[in-house]
Every structure is written in C-alpha cells, then in structure tokens.
Amino acid sequence: MSTTTNGDASASKPPTILQKIYAQRQKDVELAQATPGTRPDELDTYLAMGLAPPLIPLVPRLKRNPASSTSASSSLSLMAEIKRASPSKGDIALTVNPAQQALLYAKAGASVISVLTEPTWFKGTLLDLRLARQAVDVLPDRPALLRKEFVFSEYQIAEARLHGADTVLLIVAMLDQPTLARLYAYSCKLGMEPLVEVNNAAEMHRALELGAKVIGVNNRNLHDFSVDMGTTSSLVDMVREKDVVLCALSGISGPGDVNVYKEQGVNAVLVGEALMRAPDTSAFIKNLLAW
Ligand SMILES: O=P(O)(O)OC[C@@H](O)[C@@H](O)c1c[nH]c2ccccc12
C-alpha cells in the first residue's frame, strides 16, 4: 500500500495523528480482509450479485436543500455528521443513537449524513452507517450517506457501498496521486462520487487535477489539529467558475461561520461536534442555516 510525502513517517519526527490512525487502520483492514466472510473476493461477489442497496447520486442531492427551491440566490446545504468522539476532543456524545440522530438530521433538511466509521479514535462502526441509512431509507427525499473514514484501499470503498453509503471520503493528504486517482475511479465505478478533502492550495490542485466534483476544505489540519476557519475562504477562488461543489469542513459552530462562507460562495458546510452537542438538534440546524 502506498504512503505519501505527507503520510510517510520520517525516522526523526514522531508520527502525526493522521499517520497513527492510518497505521492502525492498515492493521484493521488487513484483519478484516483475512477474516472468512469479509474477504475481498467475498465482498466482490456480493457487489456482483447486486446486493448493495440502491444509491442516490451525490451532486444533485448536495445541491438540494430546504432553501434551494425558494431562494433565487445561492443557498448553503448541510452535511450533518454522526461523531461520538474524536482524537482532538475526546468523547463528544457517547449516548447519541446514530439511527435517531440520522432521522433528526434528515428531517431538519440535511443533504448528506456523514457517519464516522473509525473505531479507535472516533468510536464509530460500519453498523452506525448501516443503521443511519436504514433509518432514513423510508423518507421521500432521503439525504446521501457518507462513509467518513481514512480510506486507502478499494476494499474500504466496497465495504462502504455494501453498508449503504452513497459516497466516501478521500483525504488527499493521506494518499499519493496515483493511489488517489485509482480510488477515485473505483468509487465512481461503484456509483459513488467521492468527497475529496484538501487542506491547502497544493492539495486543492491535486483534487482539481483528479476532476473531483465535490471538494471539501478541512479547516482542521489533520497532522497537528490546528483549526483555521480562513482555510476554506483562502481556497474559494481556486474553484470559482468551475463545476465543483465546494464544502467547508470542521470548526463550524454557529450562523456567523455559515454566513461568511455563504457570502464567499461556498456551497455546503459539514458540521459534526456542534450538532452532536446541540440540546435541540432541529432548532440548532434551523438557526445555523437560517431555514
Ligand atoms: O466536528 P467538527 O469540527 O464540526 O468537524 C466535522 C468534520 O469536518 C470532521 O469530523 C472531519 C473532517 N475531515 C475529517 C477526516 C477524518 C475524520 C474526521 C474529519
């Protein structure tokens, strides 16, 4: 499996959190692949049998939100995240039920529900993803489901699809360009346009070179956890006039943050912690997006 300039731990420096998670995830995936029942060829067979649940295309769903039908001006869409814990914040909301939370997000108008499936630092599982999907499946215009994960192999993308994801996250900082291109193509082949995550201009170039249609700028640097809300703003000009849905990720806690991005032409915001902690989820969402 390929590592990258950024993802490669050099001998002298201690590994960054991204490198630690990547290393652990490689072991986890190796174990799953060696386990009868979840071997790669078995997942391929399930996919070939058409057993993955039907999916919806990400881009049109992301462009649709409770304000998009009425307002002439551009409106922001919400990607709402299910996140029990995180390496930077520790435990966030251990008792929130993913299926109930997904329903609340969907009914409040989220276009995408992002589910963390990383078990060690984020305390998420593939079952969270599957049950979140099942909870919203009956709704007339359900949100798309995003597998929020540290993806480095086709296997994880196949798993995502079989567990009901409509899209997966690809983190540019974690992957060299050939691997990124290969995983991007595989995800598209399964019908899932990925959310491609960048954190600076060089990574944005790589995402654009790939032809990514949905790009998320993470305001949080995954190597050192520093959060700079201006990160998204600084990259907006690189996608202006382009056929790209631009999303701001991380650190968004109130309508002030959202309004700045709206004025700058950002198309969507991804919110985790603030939503998981909100005492009244739907009231919080209405206030956040001014819906
Ligand atoms: O909880 P926040 O600050 O609203 O952030 C959500 C989301 O952006 C964050 O969870 C995230 C962005 N990119 C990631 C990559 C892996 C894991 C997590 C993430």
UniProtKB/TrEMBL annotation:
Signal sequence extent: none
Class of the enzyme per the UniProt entry, highest EC level: lyase
Pfam families hit by this protein: IGPS
Keyword terms: Amino-acid biosynthesis, Aromatic amino acid biosynthesis, Decarboxylase, Glutamine amidotransferase, Lyase, Multifunctional enzyme, Tryptophan biosynthesis
Keyword Lyase appears in the UniProt entry: yes
GO biological process terms on file: L-tryptophan biosynthetic process
UniProt xrefs under InterPro entries: Aldolase_TIM (IPR013785), Indole-3-glycerol_P_synth (IPR045186), Indole-3-glycerol_P_synth_dom (IPR013798), Indole-3-GlycerolPSynthase_CS (IPR001468), RibuloseP-bd_barrel (IPR011060)
Molecular functions (GO terms): anthranilate synthase activity; indole-3-glycerol-phosphate synthase activity; phosphoribosylanthranilate isomerase activity
Catalytic activity: 1-(2-carboxyphenylamino)-1-deoxy-D-ribulose 5-phosphate + H(+) = (1S,2R)-1-C-(indol-3-yl)glycerol 3-phosphate + CO2 + H2O; chorismate + L-glutamine = anthranilate + pyruvate + L-glutamate + H(+)
Domain Indole-3-glycerol phosphate synthase: 18-288
E.C. number(s) listed in UniProt: 4.1.1.48, 4.1.3.27
Pathway: Amino-acid biosynthesis; L-tryptophan biosynthesis; L-tryptophan from chorismate: step 4/5; Amino-acid biosynthesis; L-tryptophan biosynthesis; L-tryptophan from chorismate: step 1/5
PANTHER family on file: INDOLE-3-GLYCEROL-PHOSPHATE SYNTHASE, TRYPTOPHAN BIOSYNTHESIS PROTEIN
Stated name of the protein: Multifunctional tryptophan biosynthesis protein
Organism: Schizopora paradoxa
